[in-house]
Amino acid sequence: MQGFVNKDALATTITSRKATFFSQSGATLWTKGETSNNFINIYDMFVDCDRDSIIYLGKPDVPTCHTGLETCYFTSIGDLLKEQEVEETNLALTTLYSLESTISKRELELAGKHGKPSWTKRLLLDENLLCAKIRAEADELCRPLEEKEDSSCTASEMANVIYHAMVLLRRKDVKIENVLEVLRRRFSQSGIEEKQSRASTES
Ligand SMILES: N=c1c2ncn([C@@H]3O[C@H](COP(=O)(O)OP(=O)(O)OP(=O)(O)O)[C@@H](O)[C@H]3O)c2ncn1[C@@H]1O[C@H](COP(=O)(O)O)[C@@H](O)[C@H]1O
């Protein structure tokens, strides 16, 4: 565990041989174990080279961490970052898969005679409209950059591009997972290297 000490906390630890700290929130001295009777019995203390940190060397009566583990430092930063990455990746994938599934449902609904009006159905039935929309939405995504406008609509323009392109994927019977797989395969190679390797095989 880690705690703060002031001069009094250190003096108390030296005389009592029980790990004592200074509670910054309560502005009081605090001896670990004073309420639970689970003390840390101090054998020695070390200060570092510039004397701004101290190690208490002691034996706790029971595991020090309130979780019951031997140490409070049981969470690896690497694991934490991985967990966060996995959560973010799952959310992104769930969004794309869910949109893909809605688009597929709309395609199935085309077979039925009646059904709610649907933009997806209109796109699925009219490839000229679909391609025109993809080009128009891509243009709308680029325009604020070219015309130095603010980026308040960029996320929404990108969503339009993705949605319309995903309807095209459905028409071509290509899964979003196939697209993601291609992107993953490209992780290990720069675009410049890839282009150069194409030029050398083409010549
Ligand atoms: N993500 C979208 C989505 N993004 C954009 N759009 C529609 O795409 C159309 C774009 O056409 P427009 O160019 O006229 O719209 P605009 O770009 O705002 O207008 P302009 O000023 O550029 O002309 C609008 O009707 C939007 O509502 C979308 N329509 C549907 N979806 C998804 O598909 C699901 C099913 O939708 P329906 O098939 O309509 O039931 C929805 O619940 C959404 O999850």
Describe this entry's structure for a reader.
The chain is mostly helical and 203 residues long. The protein folds into two domains: 7-60, Ubiquitin-like (UB roll) (Roll), CATH 3.10.20; 77-202, Orthogonal Bundle (Helix Hairpins), CATH 1.10.287. The protein contains seven helices and four strands. Strands 1-2 form a two-stranded antiparallel sheet. A two-stranded antiparallel sheet has the order 3-4. Helix 3 (119-125) packs across helix 4. The termini are far apart. The model has no long low-confidence stretch (mean pLDDT 90). Bound molecules: phosphoribosyl ATP (PRT). Phosphoribosyl ATP binds at residues 99, 102, 106, 118-121, 160, 163.
Major sheet: order of its strands?
A: 1-2
Low-pLDDT regions: none
Which fold name fills CATH's third level, the topology of the largest domain?
Answer: Helix Hairpins
- Determine Rg (CA atoms, Å): 31 Å
Residue share in helix: 40-55%
The CATH homologous superfamily of the largest domain corresponds to MazG-like
Tertiary shape:
elongated
| Biggest β-sheet strands, sense, barrel | 2 strands, antiparallel
* Number of E-state strands: 4
Cofactors, ions, other ligands: phosphoribosyl ATP
CATH architecture of the largest domain: Orthogonal Bundle
CATH uppermost class of the largest domain: Mainly Alpha
Q: What distance lies between the first and last C-alpha atoms, to the nearest angstrom?
A: 65 Å
Q: Report the β-strand fraction as a percent range.
A: 5-15%
Structural class: mainly alpha
Number of domains: 2
What layout of secondary structure does this protein have?
Elements: H1 7-16, E1 20-23, E2 28-31, E3 40-47, E4 54-60, H2 77-109, H3 119-125, H4 127-146, H5 154-171, H6 176-185, H7 191-202
Antiparallel strand pairs: 1-2, 3-4
The protein binds phosphoribosyl ATP (PRT).
